[in-house]
Design goal:
Layout lengths: L13 E5 L5 H12 L5 E9 L2 E8 L4 E10 L5 H15 L3 E6 L2 H8 L5 H10 L16 H51 L4 H6 L2 H9 L3
Parallel strand pairs: 1-4, 2-5
Antiparallel strand pairs: 2-3, 3-4
Helix pairs in contact: 1-2, 5-7
Length: about 220
């Protein structure tokens, strides 16, 4: 019986899956989220089967691998090749090592079905090479303006998701409540000022204290 040096699996490789086989934009969005995330991508392998491409991303912490499914394509003008080109350009700008490997349909299917194994990861690492056919991957279809638009769109969407969906909505709710409170306090203040009797003044204090209370909400 072989000695199991990791009975709890604490040192196993964590394999995740992102992107979509049917939508290039999901592949772009997920890649950009990972690119600007807290974990640094050190190398990216483009896995090619016919004119379809999947990605394997390796990070500084070597126990973490992300596959982006094959919603990326090449060999013709269109959204798929533009997405492939965009991701390659962004990876180049970030200083990520880019590799490529021709993948068998069986390997592609395991990646797209979220069933890749540790042996698959090891096989890809061993057989991938830093050699890209840039023309075939349609890099010429993407210019700097397109890349900047994608970056701006990503940052805008990220703000909507993580800022407006939480902070801004909360802020709006607070402002509505504040306006209602100010209106009530103003009505109290006006009632005190306009009252000829002293009962309201005794109940709510003098006008200056009410004004101070109002200012505390501003």
């Amino acid at each position: 019986m072989l000695l199991d040096n990791d009975p709890l699996g604490l040192y196993s490789i964590d394999i995740k899956y992102e992107g979509s086989t049917s939508a290039t934009q999901y592949c772009i969005d997920d890649f950009m989220r990972l690119l600007y995330g807290s974990r640094k991508i050190v190398d990216m392998t483009i896995l090619t089967c016919e004119n379809y491409h999947a990605l394997m991303l390796c990070f500084e912490n070597q126990d973490y691998i992300v596959f982006i499914k094959s919603g990326l394509t090449s060999g013709y003008p269109g959204t798929g090749p533009k997405g492939t080109s965009l991701i390659i350009r962004l990876a180049e700008e970030a200083g990520i090592i880019i590799k490529e490997m021709k993948a068998a349909p069986s390997l592609f299917k395991r990646i797209n079905s979220s069933r890749a194994t540790v042996k698959d990861v090891e096989f890809i690492k061993k057989n991938s090479k830093e050699s890209l056919d840039y023309d075939r991957l349609c890099l010429k279809n993407v210019d700097k303006k397109y890349i900047q638009q994608a970056k701006d769109s990503f940052k805008k969407d990220k703000d909507i998701i993580f800022v407006r969906a939480e902070d801004e909505k909360t802020k709006d709710a607070v402002e509505i409540d504040r306006a209602k409170a100010l209106k009530i306090l103003q009505e109290i203040h006006d009632a005190v000022i306009n009252s000829k009797g002293s009962s309201l003044l005794s109940d709510f204090g003098n006008a200056s204290s009410i004004l101070s209370l109002i200012k505390s909400f501003l």
